[in-house]
Design brief:
The protein is built from seven helices and ten strands. The protein has 226 residues and is α/β, with parallel strands linked by helices. Adenosine-5'-diphosphate binds next to strand 2 and helix 1.
């Protein structure tokens, strides 16, 4: 099985050398196999979001190394990290949709730099919306959708670039029960279709779709539940 992402002794310190210094991650080593599904759980402040930000090449570690498809990201420039992030799809706790853009534009604006035309992007958005059970919503604005629908649009955006991996940070924490169940089904289907899943959550229903569950406490990996 090939390794997609690996952390080696990764530590992340915010505001180093100040009175406000925080060791958000402390000596974390783990690897994520291609096409696997892993989840991080742990109390608020334990480092879940920080770990996803590092695995997603959005932040750099203070110490240690991160490898993506065997490549050490340490020596990569910011522009190279941006290119690597295009192989990833991100889903955030608060959906992070742009209020002034229609649903189809929200789903596909990350593809504009790839030179995709408006017509092609709209077609792609429609096919993703069909797949995710929102065929009628293509021209709506985010505020016209429920929370569950907005989160499905954010998954469509994450999938639009055909990523190797989806990183989803507490994707159900702002959803009601029914919407959470639907969202989890969408994530599970995505994984079955071959995309690697990296999740953070407190929600046992989210953790249930992960093959491996890591537990964090004060920035340290304290256990692997399975
Ligand atoms: N940008 C930041 N600047 C300073 N401290 C941060 C920043 N992001 C997170 N932290 C701190 O790092 C620790 C881990 O936070 P986080 O990764 O958000 O945990 P979780 O997602 O598990 O709630 C917390 O103490 C938090 O306050
Ligand atoms: Mg968090």
């Amino acid at each position: 099985m090939s390794v997609l992402l690996e952390t080696r002794n990764v530590t992340k310190i915010y505001r180093p050398g100040t009175r406000m210094e925080v060791r958000a991650l402390d000596d974390v080593s783990l690897s994520v196999a291609s096409r696997s599904s892993v989840a991080f759980t742990g109390p608020s402040g334990s480092g879940k979001t920080t770990l996803l930000a590092l695995l997603g090449a959005m932040e750099r570690p203070s110490h240690g190394q991160i490898f993506f498809q065997g490549r050490d990201l340490r020596s990569d420039s910011d522009a190279e990290l941006t290119r690597i992030r295009r192989k990833m799809g991100f889903v955030f706790q608060d959906f992070a949709l742009i209020p002034s853009l229609a649903v189809w534009e929200n789903i596909t604006y990350p593809l504009i730099p790839r030179g995709m035309s408006g017509g092609e992007r709209r077609k792609l958005a429609q096919s993703l919306l069909d797949e995710l059970g929102l065929p009628e919503k293509i021209d709506k604005r985010p505020h016209e959708l429920s929370g569950g629908e907005q989160q499905r649009v954010s998954i469509a955006r994450a999938l639009a670039g055909r990523p190797e991996v989806i990183l989803a940070d507490e994707p159900t924490s702002n959803l009601d029960d029914a919407a959470a169940v639907e969202l989890i089904a969408v994530l599970k289907k995505t994984h079955t279709a071959g995309t690697t899943l990296i999740l953070s959550s407190h929600d046992p229903r989210v953790l249930a779709i992960a093959e491996t569950v890591y537990r964090l406490k004060s920035g340290r990996l304290v256990a692997t539940d399975r």
